[in-house]
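Appendix B. One record, verbatim.
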Amino acid sequence: MTCAILDDEPLALDLLADYCTQVPGLELKGQFDDALAGLAFLQDNPVDVVFLDIHMPRLTGLQLAQLLPQPGPRIVFTTAYDQYAVRSYELNAADYLLKPIAFERFVQAVQKVRQQLSAAPVASSVAHAAEAPPTAPDAMFVKNEHRLQRVAFDDILYIEGMKEYLMIYTTTGKVLTLQSFRRVEEVLPPERFARIHKSYLVALSRIEHVERGKVQVAGRLLPIGDTYRDSFNALIKAYNQL
């Protein structure tokens, strides 16, 4: 069984690589501390399983999982944050490992992937078609004044950061909330929304056009920051293929 590791933390990368050498029949094909470099490798070099860190710069593990070729490798998410567990299973992850990862827990994940791979060839295609995918959330609740306000994902145009506040622009108006971009990004579907700048996050379906380092949403030109340019371009490319 072949695998690859993506993690921006050198110690975590080395630990998982060492674990791979200790598991018979598990061959490490590549290890990367940069998400985009790992994505490029996986697009040309299929593997059976990817051990994928969630919290990485430029491109999160959740976003990267959406960009992998389909049918793609089994995904085992690795992270120090347990709040991503629900989202990872919506993406049909094979397993979810919380850091620090014990060797015994790593072996359990490998065995789970092996069982899935061995069962795949004999599984009926009709049975797969009958499996109902988990229902993904279609909205989020944000604190607005003294109440929690529901904001439907379909209604969001873009979000603008204003120091410790966020202004959410929707088809029905604006919502000001005391919230961080990080917290909102944990909730928004990564295949539908993209952070394009330290101060802006946009709904991909609401982009009217892209020009000269800017995107237009609802008639307003928003800048694309250098830090987010590569990951945004990758998401746009994947979105066009849906």
